[in-house]
Design goal:
The radius of gyration is 22 Å and the shape is elongated. It starts with a helix and ends with a helix. It has 16 helices and no strands. It is mostly helical.
Length: 260
């Protein structure tokens, strides 16, 4: 039985829009055995690795095995979703190893899984381990600019909720990504700065901007730092951190401080 084109279109729509888990699972399974080409199937299944439903994510990972995804990656993603903390930590390391040595399918699946789990995870230990593996994979992430942007934005959002757990790891990861994609990371951070009124988050983003290559030449940075210093209390650690950055910028930093 060959699935007609209009039925394939209906199944693809069900995968994207159905509110029922059973409908999505059935549609994914039928698409796996449809006459769609491998690239089209990979696009559908990779997209469902970010589905809101964990069971749909697990099914998509298992179906990617039909397209030659390393079984260890598929199993690690299953443990991500269903395992206890110890199983999740082991799964993160397995994904990290396979991303280093695998092909585009393993890299793409691993990145989607790690970033999604970072967004949803409540365990401090699991979040930290994900951040460590992502830091190790920064060159791979830089090769997928849309993932890099997604990750930078997520790190800023996570800092707002978990500053102690996220701060140091996020700074290192953004610095590494910025070394590879300085203009893209810089523009992403400026958008994040413009989109928040939180004093602590603004200080954090300004620190990230000042960690990028060529930060001292960024024409808008001295004024933005000086304006934030003007909002800060002298006893705040952020006051001192931002002041140090202005000093590193030099004359432009000093003028901005005087004019604030």
């Amino acid at each position: 039985y060959i699935i007609p084109a209009e039925e394939i279109d209906r199944l693809r729509l069900a995968v994207l829009t159905s509110a029922r888990r059973e409908d999505k699972l059935e549609a994914l399974r039928r698409l796996a055995y449809s006459p769609l080409g491998p690239e089209a199937k990979a696009e559908i299944f990779l997209g469902r690795l970010a589905d809101p439903d964990a069971e749909v994510r697990v099914e998509a990972a298992q179906l990617l095995r039909t397209l030659s995804l390393d079984p260890e990656v598929a199993d690690a993603m299953r443990d991500f979703e269903r395992g206890e903390e110890a199983e999740k930590l082991f799964a993160i390391d397995r994904l990290g190893r396979r991303m280093k040595t695998g092909g585009p399918l393993e890299v793409g699946a691993g990145l989607i899984a790690l970033i999604l789990r970072l967004r949803e995870e409540s365990s401090i230990a699991v979040r930290r381990q994900i951040l460590e593996r992502l830091e190790e994979a920064h060159e791979i992430i830089a090769g997928a600019p849309e993932r890099a942007v997604e990750l930078v934005r997520l790190l800023v959002a996570l800092f707002a909720a978990h500053p102690v757990d996220i701060g140091s790891h996020a700074r290192r990861l953004v610095r590494r990504l910025g070394g590879r994609l300085p203009d893209l990371v810089r523009s992403t951070l400026w958008r994040e700065l413009e989109g928040t009124s939180s004093h602590s988050v603004r200080i954090f983003v300004l620190q990230l901007l000042s960690g990028l290559p060529g930060f001292e030449k960024d024409p808008s940075l001295p004024e933005a730092i000086a304006a934030e210093i003007a909002r800060a209390e002298e006893r705040e650690i952020g006051f001192r951190l931002l002041g140090d950055i202005l000093m590193q910028i030099g004359d432009r930093g000093a003028r901005a401080a005087l004019e604030a």
